[in-house]
């Protein structure tokens, strides 16, 4: 069993030593940052101890479950309550064989408890590690941006319409179905409409990746899309005008622009390779053999290495010193690339092209060690998917198209396997393209996918496919980490070689430039000190030999000049001897020159931070810087706009919520209103009826009032004519209104009815019309008057008799 590293808890014993050492920093950080992990370990321990004491299979089952056993196994273990089961379960569950066997032998839950505990720790630990990124390693989704090109002249002439709407503020693409008119919307990390410029794309898509590559991360930018959708335009761009250059040449300018801004103690080595995958074959586009033999080196193999990752064996790598070097190399490779005309694109790329730039950066850190970071940038221009019906490809073009579509469908399968969450196998090995992009998709790389779209209505299906593909790719997670101090760093080897050359030259008389560095290098490693010592001894011996040779030549010359007695034969021998020695010195000098040249060459290979190596690309880098500043301003504006939009949206949502409540209130009010309206209508009808009723009643009342007035007139007339005034006053004075019965009553009987005495004298009678003497009316006269006034007949035909008797009574 391994001893844990200092400062590590004993539960980390299950890790093997190498792994433990490698994860040393990570584990401390995890323990520091993950108190809940520690809590979970303690809980596991407690559970295990309880299991240990009670020896209950139930506990073990529970621990087993937490440890990640299949549930059915736990259930069976529970049913039988037997440690035997649990031991057997341990085997497929991932226990070491010996633990299970010992557990089986002793039949003891003790073992199983411990195993459960360990397994649980391990499971939890790795899950925690997966969920929490370790220092220097970043788990992040690949970025997906979309770029739409404008409708081409041909498409405009043919009358095609754009069915894609790009919103660069909301980062959405809306695609309209030309048949149904239905619109489907997609959101991406960034959306570039047809008006977007090449520097915009570079600054948004490539600049951050290149900055990461300079820090030591791997980065990939790949363009995907239907044939003719603008992939090559995006990656390479047009030659000539600076503002038309694509991501690849702009990257060159930016890389050397950043190196020019770096500190002088940082050193860089930039190497490039360029190859294509054509008909499932890898072709080296920078192969020197191209010029000589006019054939490309093809059929290169893809290999995988722990340190290097996936790489192409035997690929030409060229060291570059400036942005212009890179430009020239790209132009050379581009010439070798396979293109062909199809109906969809006059210069269709018939292969997937990968331009790789490896940047090694070294600097001396505080402890004097040389720290090296290596970042690799892959710039990928994929061939476009195409349909034979549209591209009308035949013969070779058709065969190429089949291979292209096959490679792309494999890429689709890899994306699907990486994102569906169920796949246990990712089919990287099914094609060269997916194999090469293995690190870029789901591996150690920061990746951006640029999905290119053609906006015309006749491409609806392909555009929809690209958008779906791109949407899926958004879910791919990569774990990029800085590649530090790789064993095979070329920069380190070169630095060592340069130091050796300098020492060699110093030893042979060259004073060298940097003895301090030499000393630092000597401290670099013990191995090198020994090597240095050995070399120094050889160097000193050689130097002694050369100076001795020079001294001998000088002495021999002197002897030749001064010794006149020397014979001719002896002189010739001495001359020959001098010439031999001079020849040897010449060889030594040539050797020194050779070493100097080699040193110069090697020194040139390494670029020192702060050197301006942009040459012609300087203008390009300036353009990019300006455009980056503009972009920053625009970004701020867009951000503000997004904020405004967001607050408006929130306001709208609130309004809508309010509105929903208001709507409910309004619906209730409406109901109430219609109820009230109905009530009002019925009231109105009632009122109308009442009004009519009233009018009728008023009319009736008017009529009865008239009748009453007529009656009053009659009775007044009768009273005035036939009741003496004094009698009237007397009767009035004795009358009172009986409220109980609602009638008038005469309080004195003497004045009622028959007690009344007529006025025979006629003085008290009402004056006769025409002022004659007042006479009592005859019955006939009374009848006539009644008839004239339309009154009821006098009640008694003997009215006169009655009247007379009444009068008599009054008179007696
Ligand atoms: N954003 C753009 N603005 C203007 N023109 C563009 C744009 N994108 C593409 N084009 C033009 O469209 C045509 C096709 O573009 P390109 O060759 O880049 O397509 P591709 O996707 O690489 O096609 P293939 O897969 O067949 O190689 C070219 O003439 C190119 O100049």
From TrEMBL:
Q: Where is this region: Disordered?
A: 502-526, 761-799
Cellular component annotations (GO), alphabetically ordered: microtubule
| Kinesin motor domain boundaries | 141-476
Q: Which GO terms describe its biological process?
A: microtubule-based movement; mitotic cell cycle
| Binding-site positions, ATP | 225-232
Would you say which domain of life the source belongs to? Eukaryota
Which organism does this sequence originate in?
Hypsibius exemplaris
Q: Which GO terms describe its molecular function?
A: ATP binding; microtubule binding; microtubule motor activity
Transmembrane parts of this sequence: 37-59, 71-91, 97-117
Under which name does UniProt file this protein?
Answer: Kinesin-like protein
List localization entries: Cytoplasm, Cytoskeleton
Question: What residue stretch is flagged as signal peptide?
Answer: none
Keywords recorded for this protein, A-Z: ATP-binding, Coiled coil, Cytoplasm, Cytoskeleton, Membrane, Microtubule, Motor protein, Nucleotide-binding, Transmembrane, Transmembrane helix
Q: Which residues form a coiled coil?
A: 673-700
Record family assignment:
Belongs to the TRAFAC class myosin-kinesin ATPase superfamily. Kinesin family.
Give the principal location in a single coarse category.
cytoplasm
């Amino acid at each position: 069993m391994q001893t844990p590293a200092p400062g590590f808890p004993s539960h980390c014993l299950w890790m093997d030593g190498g792994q433990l050492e490698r994860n040393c920093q990570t584990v401390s950080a995890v323990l520091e940052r993950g108190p809940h992990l520690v809590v979970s370990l303690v809980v596991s321990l407690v559970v295990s101890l309880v299991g240990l004491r009670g020896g209950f299979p139930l506990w073990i089952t529970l621990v087993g479950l937490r440890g990640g056993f299949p549930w059915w196994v736990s259930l069976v273990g529970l049913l039988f309550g037997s440690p035997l089961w649990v031991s057997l379960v341990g085997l497929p569950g991932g226990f070491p064989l010996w633990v299970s066997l010992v557990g089986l032998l002793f039949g003891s839950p003790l073992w199983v408890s411990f195993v459960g505990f360990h397994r649980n720790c391990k499971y939890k630990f790795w899950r925690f590690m997966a969920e929490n990124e370790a220092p220097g390693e970043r788990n992040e989704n690949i970025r997906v941006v979309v770029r739409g090109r404008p409708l081409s002249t041909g498409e405009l002439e043919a009358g095609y319409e754009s069915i894609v709407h790009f919103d660069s503020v909301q980062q959405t693409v809306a695609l309209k179905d030309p048949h149904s008119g239905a619109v489907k919307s997609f959101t991406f990390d960034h959306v570039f409409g047809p008006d977007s410029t090449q520097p915009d794309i570079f600054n948004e898509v490539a600049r951050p990746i290149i900055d990461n590559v300079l820090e030591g991360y791997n980065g990939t930018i790949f363009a995907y899309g239907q044939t003719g959708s603008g992939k090559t335009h995006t990656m390479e761009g047009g030659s000539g005008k600076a503002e038309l250059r694509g991501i690849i040449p702009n990257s060159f300018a930016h890389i050397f622009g950043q190196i020019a801004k770096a500190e002088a103690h940082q050193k860089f080595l930039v190497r490039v390779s360029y190859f294509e995958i054509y008909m499932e074959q890898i072709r080296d586009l920078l192969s020197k053999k191209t010029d000589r033999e006019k054939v490309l080196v093809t059929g290169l193999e893809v290999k995988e290495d722990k340190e290097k990752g996936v790489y192409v064996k035997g690929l030409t790598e060229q060291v570059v010193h400036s942005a212009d070097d890179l430009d020239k190399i790209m132009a050379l490779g581009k010439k070798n690339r396979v293109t062909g005309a199809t109906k969809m694109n006059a210069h269709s790329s018939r292969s997937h092209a990968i331009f790789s730039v490896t940047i090694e950066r070294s600097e001396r850190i505080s402890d004097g060690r040389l720290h090296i970071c290596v970042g690799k940038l892959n710039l990928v221009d994929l061939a476009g998917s195409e349909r034979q019906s549209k591209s009308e490809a035949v013969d070779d073009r058709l065969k190429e198209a089949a291979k292209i579509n096959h490679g792309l469908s494999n890429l689709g399968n890899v994306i699907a396997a990486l994102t569906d969450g169920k796949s246990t196998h990712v089919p990287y090995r099914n094609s060269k393209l997916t194999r090469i992009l293995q690190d870029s998709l789901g591996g150690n790389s920061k990746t951006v996918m640029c999905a290119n779209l053609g906006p015309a209505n006749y491409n609806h299906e392909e555009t929809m496919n690209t958008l779906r593909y791109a949407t899926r790719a958004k879910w791919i997670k990569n774990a990029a980490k800085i590649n530090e101090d790789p064993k095979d760093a070329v920069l380190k080897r070169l630095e060592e070689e340069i130091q050796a050359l300098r020492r060699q030259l110093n030893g042979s008389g060259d004073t060298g430039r940097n003895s301090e560095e030499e000393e630092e290098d000597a401290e670099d490693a013990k191995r090198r000190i020994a090597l240095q010592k050995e070399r120094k001894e050889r160097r000193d011996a050689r130097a002694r030999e050369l100076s001795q040779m020079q001294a001998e030549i000088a002495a021999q010359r002197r002897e030749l000049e001064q010794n006149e007695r020397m014979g001719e034969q002896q002189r010739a021998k001495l001359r020959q001897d001098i010439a031999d020695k001079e020849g040897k010195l010449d060889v030594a000098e040539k050797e020194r020159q050779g070493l100097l040249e080699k040193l110069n060459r090697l020194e040139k290979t390494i670029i020192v931070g702060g050197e301006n190596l942009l040459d012609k690309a300087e203008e390009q880098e300036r353009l990019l810087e300006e455009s980056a500043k503009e972009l920053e301003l625009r970004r701020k504006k867009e951000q503000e706009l997004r904020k405004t939009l967001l607050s408006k949206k929130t306001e709208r949502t609130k309004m809508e919520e309010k509105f929903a409540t208001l709507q409910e209130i309004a619906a209730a009010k409406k109901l109430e209103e219609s109820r009230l309206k109905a009530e009002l209508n019925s009231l109105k009808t009632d009122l109308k009826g009442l009004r009519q009723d009233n009018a009728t009643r008023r009319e009736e009342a008017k009529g009865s009032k008239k009748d009453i007035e007529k009656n009053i007139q009659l009775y007044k007339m009768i009273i005035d004519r036939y009741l003496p005034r004094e009698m009237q006053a007397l009767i009035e004075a004795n009358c009172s209104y009986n409220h109980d019965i609602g009638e008038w009553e005469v309080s004195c009987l003497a004045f009622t009815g028959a007690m009344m005495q007529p006025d025979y004298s006629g003085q008290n009678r009402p004056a006769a019309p025409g002022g004659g003497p007042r006479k009592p009316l005859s019955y006939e006269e009374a009848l006539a008057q009644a008839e004239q006034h339309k009154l009821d007949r006098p009640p008694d035909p003997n009215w006169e008799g009655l009247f007379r008797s009444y009068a008599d009574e009054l008179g007696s």
